Amino acid sequence: MKTQPSPTRSCKAQYRAWLAGGACALVAAVALAAGDGHRQLGVHEHGTGHLDLVLDGSSLEIALEGPMANFVGFEHAPRNSAEEMAVQQVLSRLRDAPRLFRIPVAASCQLTDVSIDAPPDAGHADEDHDHDEAHADIAASYVFRCGNPAALSHVDVLLFADFPGTKQLVGRVIAPGRQGGATLTPGKNRLDVVAR
Description:
The chain is an alpha+beta fold. The chain has five helices and ten strands, in the order E-H-H-E-E-H-H-H-E-E-E-E-E-E-E.
């Protein structure tokens, strides 16, 4: 497993493969982020994020995006060592896919890549910098190889326990025979991959 600084780079290659497979509408929104590396999907609303799931053959990609405040509690660059440590802990938790997502064991999915995209100054305190309260987002991309993708009936999203600032996720799915979605909350955290 490797960690890359920007999911937009790894997703662009995946986008080309998915586009060839016909799953273009959602993947274009997920993979083609703004040129500055910050994703601009929909309205920036604290407490709400986006979770996109694409299953193409044996490849499963989960893309997560939301306001930095949902994850760490603030959107400015860290102002002191405590805030810097909080950002580093969040970034570490975001890399721990099994802690965030429960995938049916029968699907035999193995994590192959994790990419985190955070503001350039996230995690680095700068006491001399004039901090504004501009909006900042964090995005993460998780790529899995599944030995039995037919058994991938759903994904349980467990990240609400680690990130209580995330009150809901707008979940979207593209999978063979299915395009859809659901609003996920701490009490309703299952995203169906197959139509029910």
